[in-house]
Amino acid sequence: MLRCRTTIPLLPLRRLLVQPRRPCAAATSSAGAGDATPVSSAKEPPREDDLSEESRSRLVRDTCRLLELRDSWSPKLEAQLRHLLRVLSPPQVRAILRAQAEKDARAAFEFFRWADRQWKYRHAPEVFDEMLCLLSRTKLHDPARRVLRLMIRRGVRRGPRQFAHLMLSYSRAGKLRSAMRVLQLMQKDGCAPDISICNVAVNVLVVAGRVDKALEFAERMRRVGVEPDVVTYNCLIKGLCSARRIVDALEMIGSMLKNGCPPDKISYYTVMSFLCKEKRVAEVQSLLERMRNDAGLFPDQVTYNMLVHVLAKHGHADEALEFLKESEGKRFRVDEVGYSAVVHAFCLNGRMAEAKEIVNEMISKGCHPDVVTYSAVVDGFCRIGEIDQARKMMKHMYKNGCKPNTVTHTALLNGLCKIGKTSEAWELLNKSEEEWWTPSDITYSVVMHGFRREGKLKESCDVVVQMLQKGFFPTTVEINMLIHALCKEGKPVQAKDFMEQCQSKGCSINVVNFTTVIHGFSRQGDLESALSLLDDMYLSNRHPDVVTYTVVVDALGKKGRMKEATELVQKMLNRGLLPTPVTYRTVIHRYCEQGKVEELLNLLDKMLPRQEFSSAYNQVIEKLCAFGKLSEAYNLLSKVLRTASQRDAQTCHILMESFLTRGLTLQSYNVACRMFQRNLIPDLKLCQKVDSQLAVEGQRQAAGKLTIKFIERGLIKPEKHGN
Length: 723
Known about the structure:
Blueprint: H1 12-18, E1 26-28, E2 36-38, H2 52-55, H3 58-67, H4 75-87, H5 90-103, H6 105-116, H7 125-135, H8 141-154, H9 160-172, H10 176-188, H11 195-207, H12 211-223, H13 230-242, H14 246-258, H15 265-277, H16 281-295, H17 301-313, H18 317-329, H19 336-348, H20 352-364, H21 371-383, H22 387-399, H23 406-418, H24 422-430, H25 441-453, H26 457-469, H27 476-488, H28 492-504, H29 511-523, H30 527-539, H31 546-558, H32 562-574, H33 581-594, H34 597-607, H35 616-626, H36 630-635, H37 637-640, H38 646-661, H39 665-677, H40 684-697, H41 705-712
Antiparallel strand pairs: 1-2
Helix pairs in contact: 1-10, 3-4, 3-5, 5-6, 5-7, 7-8, 7-9, 8-9, 9-10, 9-11, 11-12, 11-13, 12-13, 13-14, 13-15, 14-15, 15-16, 15-17, 17-18, 17-19, 18-19, 19-20, 19-21, 20-21, 21-22, 21-23, 22-23, 23-24, 23-25, 24-25, 25-26, 27-28, 27-29, 28-29, 29-30, 29-31, 30-31, 31-32, 31-33, 32-34, ...
């Protein structure tokens, strides 16, 4: 395992860059030979289209077919794969790795490892590069580190690009420190960094939100002779804009001109995008002038398209339309995509008159609206409840030779569902084949949620059944929403049947779905069905979580089956699940309700070492007071007086008031005295009430003593209580 220090290594960059630039590593001249020849840099990998022919070769297809059977491998199949491996060229191996990574990068890495262990086979340098490149697009930093370590051990040539792949993988996994330690790994390997890996490091810091560190890193690059390029500056500008430091970003563009690195359009576009989000159009116009005058970059069609789309995306329709008109005034061609963005922005704001006006303007200028534009208008009408206008727009689409697609029809169905006409939407959905359009999973979900909001759960379940028959799968969240709705209406049996039906059709059923049904049975008092479903979870390899156990423990406690509840809590702890505050409150409530204080204390002794809950004993005393078990509560007082906190004082006050309510004034007096002994000051008014009640009851020895304790501590003045 590659080891290095834990701090973010910005300082070692100086030591790295002042070293003479020498070859990074030696590379084997052939797979079988052991001689090494120094190289100045790693060979660039072939372009993407270089592997298109290799991926279609029979050897690659046969190898991929065998790899798909990895779950049922036999010695015979492995022998076939080994034979194929020996005749595969390095580009073919790369094509196989790429094909496997499209499905799962882990599968590609497993094949890479398996092939490397075969006799008389060694990966070519470009295969190592391909594997690292594929892993850099994922969060699999451990496999990437192992590949790089194998390159070092084998003497395969490597350069900053290979280390940059590892850095990217660490960054995607959110491991900033490990990503920056890659620079130290380069130093240990004798590899001098170049501008490319420095740019990767800057971008990693920016993505992690460490803009100041990124600026510091760029400054140290300059000090040691690695001049930041336009990519470096653009990364920093992006970070500054993300941190809402727009003034610093503009100053950086100015510094680029002074440092001899003129900004490109991306530099300006980055700042403009941020300004457009905040509707700061005047500053955008100023920046366009600055781009033209300072950098000699003239706004083109791409510039205006960017401004229109960013403004429209954030709902600034008027400003987007203004730039669109300006673009037309400068003779730039505005296509249906630009118009559609503006139309969509107006529709989102509910300004349908302006949206229709733009559509008519498009037609008059010979720019025919496409299905995206019309769909935005249909959705806009549906959002404000004007279904008739949406239908007219769809007829207008047919008239202009533009057929509504799935998105258009889904928008109409969604509008019907929102105004309570889900049954009509369901009828239209069932006529989809007649009208030659194909519903999507989103279409079915829209109708399902419409029925659910209207309380028509049976129809909602019918939609899901048809959805499954069509090959679409609802999400676990959608399934759980229906299950919860059924249980809320007191229909846990139907909820269970629905869940089992979804599971039999291949839907992903998780522990939350099971827990919801178990809770539904528990609320109905059907404990046996809840326990039976808990057993079904084990059989279907769905392991209960702490919420499931809490629900079942609550149901057992409600029925007084405390022995089973205790066994279930112990089982939960043995499985390594930590109790939550809800678990503690549930256990405390049910055991106190049943008067099983001794069993509760034994259980808390096992739970608290696993997961600390500071107010556990406070809640026990308060619950015992609520259930009228004051003697048991008083016996536990020593457990809360250990810390003498304000939370403990609150618990003591509840116990004192409970004693007073039941006429046990002397016991309330004893609680106050114990509080004074722990230097915990009780409530003055409550103590005065206790003193008064003691005097009424004729308790002369105790009456007035609490007031004296306040006077002795200087909390009240004696003259006010001289009587």
